[in-house]
Amino acid sequence: MTVTSNMTTDEAATGSPVKAAVVVRTIRAQSRLRTSKKAVVAVQSALTYLLGEILDGARTAATAEGKKKVLPKHVNSAVSTDSDLQHMTGTWIIRNGKTPRVARPDTAEQETRPESAGTGRKRSADVTSHQYRRTVKLIARDKECLLATSTLDVLQTIAAEITAALAGGAGQAARNQSHDAVQAQDVRAAVEEWLTGELKAHTVRQIDTALGKATQTAS
């Protein structure tokens, strides 16, 4: 990820379009634990890579239809035609004006389905997803993807869900290791538990690379 324009100093230093403060809040909300700076870097790099993979697939699907703008159906095509993304997304339902539902690493065995209409209930991702709108825009620009407004809405919710999934899984890994704060190794463990195949291998590699760069910057 090379986008730096419109980033804060912190974001430019890590090369991430993901706001650290948003990641910290999500980890605390999902795990009830403190978080290390390296854990934040790990989540930032994982989210950036995973969103990039979804956008690559969605852009390919749009191009195949002769469309310039990526629509929600193209996002759905991207995750449904790639076995690793399909495993990650579980039972997401992606439609115009609808947001996805995802099984998180710490609740992967629970059945997930869209909320019933008219319940008035909001999931954490519904409430916080707007915080990822800028993140999605930056990654889409880097990928040269033109997004419809409805697609941006879906992707910002996906971003929130991915972050929550990583935070929840990392929190569980931290508790299993009796850590009093979420560490980068806990985020790595969450990735290895949740993802499969090449997607898992590449995401872990992205995390390790980002941590290496963060260490060099700090020294």
UniProtKB/TrEMBL annotation:
Residues 103-114 have a biased composition (Basic and acidic residues). Gene3D superfamilies: Histone, subunit A (1.10.20.10). It comes from the Bacteria. Residues 95-128 are annotated as: Disordered. This is Histone H2A.
